[in-house]
Model the fold of this input.
Amino acid sequence: MHSVRTNVSISRRSARRSVRILGVASASAALVLGVSSSALACNIKEFSAEATCDGSNGVITVTDQDATGTPATITVFLENNGADAKQVGEAQTVKGSKEGTKVTFSEDWAPNATYRVHVKVDSGKTQIDTDITPNLTTSSTACTSDESASPSPSESATPSPSASESTPAESDSPAPSATESSSTAPAGTSDNAPSPAVGESNLAETGASSNTGLIAGIAGALVVAGGGAVWFGMRRRGAHSGN
Done:
């Protein structure tokens, strides 16, 4: 009889332990499911916004990194003293991704401007109807316009005087050549030095010395004397032939 009671008590203890184990397992499973479902749910922290430039045009870009791809509606408002001044474009729908899906709003934003970016998600258990915090503030430098980067028409139409235009004016009056400079150099020296006599200059040009006149006179006399001797000899021959 005692052994029967002992077996019954052991069976009850085993049953209680089994119930406890099942309870702990169920609670753990529920906790895991809750965490995983919350991790897969769309969250406002998965949205971000920034003001960028597309060339000279301003752009507001919103990025959705919701891995579940739940559709979200994005609306952008320009703020003025804490109130909506205007809505930027039309509301756009975006399906996020783990890498991030971007949607852009064309806006010629001014430096240090404030924008409110609103996100709305209505999909089953996921309900989001709030703004991205903090509000988006643009940079202190506006986008560069194409007109400031390119030269103005007045600059291209009216070119400044260049060195190439002044060069032909200088080429119209040729510089003195080497022969002219060399010929004018002695003229400068002749002003300080006494000019040579006419006879000396002629002798220098012909290469003759001062005895040229004397030699010429002697040569002339010899020619006359020779001619007279020839004439006298011929005359004597004529006289002898006549006799």
Summary: The helical segments are 2-40, 146-149, 153-157, 163-172, 178-190, 198-206, 212-242. Residues 2-40 form the longest helix (39 residues). Residues 30-39, 147-152, 176-190, 197-208 have pLDDT under 50 and may be disordered. The beta strands are 47-54, 57-64, 71-80, 83-87, 92-95, 101-106, 114-123, 126-131, 136-137.
